[in-house]
Amino acid sequence: MNLKDVKPGETVTVTKVNGAGPIRRRIFDMGITPNTEIYVRKVAPLGDPIEITLRGYELSLRKAEAQEIEVK
């Protein structure tokens, strides 16, 4: 399952970060690494962006970025 498929109010754990180059590096720089717990706070009406909470801070991700993050 990808992060973009998670419903608001759910907490998931990152299992793998896909992608290559700058997108993958940007995801890691934001603190999204394997075994990180992510709480999905809100999803915009059209699905983009997704607001999440991790490591004590809030973050908004584009749907394309969330698709690269595998969770369980």
From TrEMBL:
GO molecular function: transition metal ion binding
Pfam families for this protein: FeoA
SMART domains: FeoA
Keyword Iron tagged: yes
InterPro entries: Fe-transptr_FeoA-like, FeoA, FeoA_core_dom, Transcriptional_repressor_C
Ferrous iron transporter FeoA-like domain boundaries: 1-72
Keywords noted in UniProt: Iron
Domain of life from the UniProt record: Bacteria
Name assigned to this protein: Ferrous iron transport protein A
Higher taxonomy: Bacteria, Bacillati, Bacillota, Erysipelotrichia, Erysipelotrichales
